[in-house]
UniProtKB/TrEMBL annotation:
GO terms for biological process: amino acid transport. This is Amino Acid/Auxin permease. Keywords: Amino-acid transport, Membrane, Transmembrane, Transmembrane helix, Transport. It is found in: Membrane. The keyword Transmembrane applies. Residues 67-374 form the Amino acid transporter transmembrane domain. It comes from Micromonas commoda (strain RCC299 / NOUM17 / CCMP2709).
């Protein structure tokens, strides 16, 4: 079946799987470089995709589940739709879905043609370099400047975005811990002031302060951060996705079976959309496809990168229906009172307690997934091979010579510590 004329993957045979030079095992062969795409200001040459690289080990299903897991925020969709209302929320959702799917396919094609461009900064710098050559009639000096500065700008933006996203995930996990500490596994069926909170804490107060829970998050995150690469996480991602699926099922059960908010008096109200709230809706719709931010790095680790279109199709086939169902059910039920933490709309019962626990585990995994791109960026620069454990030894500032595993543990623990400090900062 041929791709449509507007498809970025359209080729004479209709599938860009055929663009890849692969051997009998489906592994990428090194492609001859006839032009300068190495981005000498970058360290991407250290990790490019070829037959001898230790990076290219991850199967397509693993990459698909990892990318979907990083995107998936179905329980935030009711509040996201509420911020934009039925009309603008739907428009923003359609735009974010189409734009990220389209550009995801473009990224896949770029990587297959230029496998040395294995990160967002490398791809962006090459795009600006070529654009500058075209706009300046081949002025190589200007083009090189554009390549250097665009790479730096994108790298800083990517690093800051992912760094702050991890801080957000830490705060979410600490919040979920605090909610459970308030007795969300209690047997009460409602959230009225007269309901007894089933908790050991006095007067319904948590036994630990928020800052203490953030330290707990740091302690429990250090072990999972020792997973060196996406490939090494392949047996963690399966239960993580299962947790996500159960969370969605519990959400639907809580709304449709337990609460039935549309039957309440007064029922849900709609409207109240303002320009600021609409922009919040647009931003959160884009965030719902945040896995887009690691597409090049995911391709770098794929054993069969020519299967990227299949990864995109399966990922969006799972995400889009889940988003639509959760957004419509939640917004129809709670209207503009749908909260970003939808569990706050639910009664304190065991179902909600399980839901909070599962979301806690989901965010716990996302702390690793968000950070792995950043730590690999630094570790490859320092010569720490993520595919090795004890050899070869590497030299770190202050620490001196040590094994890759110890170097990863020390660096990643300290890196998490800086994020904890920011999460604690008021």
């Amino acid at each position: 079946m041929s791709s449509p004329p507007w498809s970025p993957t359209r080729e004479p045979h209709g599938r860009y799987e055929e663009l890849a030079q692969v051997d009998e095992y489906g592994t990428m062969r090194p492609t001859p470089q006839n032009d300068d795409v190495s981005d000498q200001a970058s360290d991407d040459a250290l990790v490019h995709h070829d037959d001898s690289s230790g990076w290219a080990q991850t199967p397509a299903w693993n990459i698909c589940l990892n990318a979907a897991m990083y995107c998936a925020v179905p329980l935030s969709m009711p509040a996201t739709l509420a911020a934009g209302g039925w009309f603008w929320g739907t428009v923003f959702f359609a735009y974010a879905t189409f734009a990220t799917y389209w550009t995801g396919l473009v990224i896949g094609r770029v990587y297959l043609e230029h496998p040395r461009l294995a990160t967002y900064p490398a791809m962006a710098s090459e795009a600006f370099h070529n654009l500058a050559l075209e706009r300046t009639n081949g002025d190589a000096r200007v083009a090189r400047n554009w390549r250097t500065w665009s790479r730096r700008a994108v790298k800083i933006t990517q690093f800051a975005t992912f760094y702050l996203d991890t801080v957000t995930q830490m705060i979410y996990v600490a919040q979920y811990f605090a909610q459970l500490d308030l007795g969300w596994f209690g047997t009460g069926a409602g959230r009225d002031e007269g309901d007894e909170i089933q908790s050991d804490s006095p007067a319904g107060r948590p036994r630990l302060c928020q800052w203490a829970w953030v330290l707990v998050v740091w302690a429990v995150s250090v072990p999972v951060m020792q997973i060196p690469t996406f490939h090494a996480s392949r047996w963690v991602i399966v239960p993580a996705v299962a947790v996500l699926a159960v969370s969605v099922a519990l959400f639907l059960y809580e709304v449709a079976v337990v609460v039935k908010p549309w039957s309440c008096e007064p029922g849900p109200s709609f409207g109240g959309v303002t320009l600021p709230s609409a922009m919040v809706s647009l931003g959160n719709m884009a965030y719902a496809y945040g896995g887009h931010g690691v597409f090049p790095e995911s391709l770098r680790e794929m054993r069969e990168p020519h299967r990227w279109p299949s990864v995109m199709r399966w990922m969006y086939a799972g995400l889009v229906p889940a988003y639509v169902v959760c957004a419509v059910v939640g917004y129809a039920g709670y209207g503009r009172f749908a909260q970003a933490n939808i569990n706050l709309n639910f009664p304190k019962n065991w179902v909600n307690g399980v839901s909070i626990t599962l979301q806690l585990l989901q965010c716990y995994y996302l702390i690793f997934y968000t950070n792995v791109v950043l730590v690999l960026m630094v570790e490859t620069r320092w010569g720490i091979d993520p595919t090795k454990t004890w050899r070869p030894r590497t030299s770190l500032p202050v620490i001196g010579s040590t094994s890759p595993a110890v170097a990863r543990m020390l660096f990643r623990t300290a890196f998490l510590g800086t994020q904890v400090a920011l999460a604690e900062w008021r």
